[in-house]
Design a protein that fits this description.
- 29% of the residues lie in helices and 27% in strands.
- The protein has 10 helices and 15 strands.
- The strands form 3 sheets. Strands 3, 4, 5, 6, 7, 14 and 15 form a 7-stranded mixed sheet that branches. Strands 10-9-8-11-12-13 form a 6-stranded parallel sheet, sandwiched between helices.
- α10 links the parallel β14 (295-299) and β15 (318-322).
- It is globular and about 60 Å long.
- The protein binds NADPH dihydro-nicotinamide-adenine-dinucleotide phosphate.
- NADPH dihydro-nicotinamide-adenine-dinucleotide phosphate (NDP) binds next to α1, α2 and α3.
Length: 325
Amino acid sequence: MRAILVTKDPDYRAEITDVEETGLPEGDVLVDVEFSTLNYKDSLALTGASPVVRSFPMVPGVDLAGVVAMSSDLGTAVGSAVMVNGHGLGEIHWGGYAERARLPADWAIPIPEGLDARSAMAVGTAGYTAMLCVMALESHGVVPDAGEIVVTGAAGGVGSMAIAILSRLGYDVVASTGRTSERDYLLGLGAHEVIDRGEFSEPGRPLGKERWAGAIDTVGSHTLANVCATTRYGGTVAACGLAQGMDLPATVAPFILRGVTLAGIDSVYCPRPIRVTAWRRISDLLDAERLEPMTTSIGLAEVFDAAEEQLEGRIRGRVVIDLSR
Ligand code: NDP
């Protein structure tokens, strides 16, 4: 099968190659992969910029969607359309950048009605994580008329999806971006205002003027600290990313003086019932027409350049990888 394989012997290398299917890991379901995606973590794995890959050789790709080719699991029918997000795909278990994948049946989620393999991957881990962030805001009482919600890393995958979801639900969304050239794109997704990410990216004060009823932060570091410091009394910040950095140079002031909640979001090992709920809600909220403006399609050979672009912050929205190209 055609695949991207990451090796380390001793130099780190990622290349397209033909791989024997016998090399596939254990699992009760074999999937003919039709589409995968490029997530930030995939770009780190492809370039070796961060130690995402923890077992070698590895097929990267944290997401995949396709059709079940073989199954020894009674609940997973041959011919059914499934997708997998996370669970260590592309990190410790061969992932979506190959024509076939084998994995445990309970990782596979039926593609919900309203989506197909391509649109499910247009959403991908980025969109599913954005949905988890929105669900965290909801569960902490941040309702659509609560006030402004700021989304950082707005023109990226998680950010774009978060704006689209929040705006569909009726929230008042402010997009924070370093690319003001993407203003029309962000307004088109449903943001009502676009601000320069420079407002957040430098060291700030422990507390600032209260503005946000809630926030979805994909950036971390000073940005997350400043977002917390400017969140209104009782507000919630859902933190899922580290595009600026893994550090959090903050004080406890927003939490102990304003009752702000910092909600951590993990998509990789999120329990199945929550995943299924998130995907059902995504399929209710976003159709192919809404996904198209934020989606670019590429083939496996174009993934390497796209990964470099992503780490330089130049990818807009979502990148779908078509395994047939
Ligand atoms: P993208 O690369 O698509 O988007 C990241 C965005 O962050 C960029 O588009 C840019 O937005 C902004 N950005 C980049 N560099 C900087 C910087 N130095 N300072 C401030 N902002 C910056 O990635 P994704 O949207 O796929 O992922 C976003 C983050 O979320 C990543 O850190 C990723 O690892 C994490 N993630 C976490 C998950 C989880 O389970 N917790 C799941 C999925 C993703 P702009 O140009 O608009 O400023």
